[in-house]
């Protein structure tokens, strides 16, 4: 069944150098999302890009916790937090969008994770699930009723964004062929279950019409 882009937005999640080949937190085959995203981007009337934008002393970085290993867990005031390799530092090349990603037609760029004390996977809320990015309000003001999501990584920022978009009242679809996952200790299977439970539809970019 085709996906109509009428009253729909495409939200492209974190297609940045550090998440692609050679990056500090590279997602396997991450570069492969660029072509399908570019193919469908012009079909949407509302186009949003998100960008991880961390200060160098961000508390989600393992390097800022002496003795902590990357991908280990720590406890933050808002709950468990994966400690990541340092990535997407503000102003760095790693934080820039993938050079082949078409960015000139974006209506809005949402930068997230810029508060030192809190990480931000979702395009809608930071990891405390309270601090909002303002994206939901923007989309409503633009008359958006449906959200399609693509980008990196499926099991973290894409999945968190999708579930939050449902909670915000949008009809939500994840374009599977335009996403790639990290699969950290089974995180991909957990994410897919969470998406299904939330009522998120899974589709492919070939299903986009309009």
Describe the 3D structure.
The structure is a single chain. The chain is α/β, with parallel strands linked by helices. It has four helices and ten strands. The protein has a six-stranded parallel beta sheet. A two-stranded parallel ribbon has the order 1-10. β2 (8-13), α1 and β3 (46-52) form a beta-alpha-beta unit. α3 (154-167) runs parallel beside α4. The model has no long low-confidence stretch (mean pLDDT 96).
Topology:
Blueprint lengths: L2 E2 L3 E6 L20 H7 L5 E7 L20 E4 L2 E4 L25 E5 L22 H7 L4 E7 L1 H14 L3 E10 L6 H12 L2 E3 L4 E2 L1
Parallel strand pairs: 1-10, 2-3, 2-7, 3-6, 7-8, 8-9
Antiparallel strand pairs: 4-5
Tally the beta strands.
10
- Estimate the helix proportion, in percent: 10-25%
Trace the largest sheet across and list its strands.
Answer: 6-3-2-7-8-9
Compute the number of helices: 4
**Helix-strand pattern, N to C?**
EEHEEEEHEHEHEE
Rounded mean pLDDT is 96
Q: In terms of structural class, how would the helical and strand content be classed?
A: alpha/beta
Biggest beta sheet attributes: 6 strands, parallel
Given as residue ranges, the uncertain stretches (5+ residues, pLDDT < 50) are none
- Radius of gyration from CA coordinates: 16 Å
Strand content range: 15-25%
Shape: globular
Instruction: Kindly report how far apart the N and C termini lie.
Output: 13 Å
């Amino acid at each position: 069944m085709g996906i109509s882009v009428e009253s729909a937005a495409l939200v492209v999640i974190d297609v940045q150098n550090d998440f692609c080949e050679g990056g500090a937190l590279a997602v396997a085959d991450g570069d492969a999302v660029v072509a399908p995203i570019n193919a469908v981007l012009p079909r949407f009337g509302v186009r949003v890009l998100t960008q991880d934008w961390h200060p160098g002393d961000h508390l989600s970085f393992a390097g800022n916790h002496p003795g902590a290993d990357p991908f280990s867990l720590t406890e933050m005031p808002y709950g468990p937090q994966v400690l990541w390799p340092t990535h997407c530092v503000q102003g760095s090349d790693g934080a820039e969008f993938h050079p082949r990603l078409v960015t000139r037609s974006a209506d809005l760029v949402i930068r997230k994770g810029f508060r030192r004390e809190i990480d931000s996977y979702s395009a809608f809320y930071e990891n405390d699930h309270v601090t909002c990015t303002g994206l939901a309000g923007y989309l409503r003001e633009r008359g958006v009723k449906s959200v399609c999501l693509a980008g990196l990584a499926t099991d973290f920022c894409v999945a968190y964004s999708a579930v939050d978009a449902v909670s915000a009242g949008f009809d939500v679809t994840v374009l599977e062929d335009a996403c790639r996952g990290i699969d950290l200790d089974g995180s991909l299977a957990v994410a897919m279950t969470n998406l299904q439970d939330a009522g998120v539809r899974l589709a492919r970019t070939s299903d986009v019409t309009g």
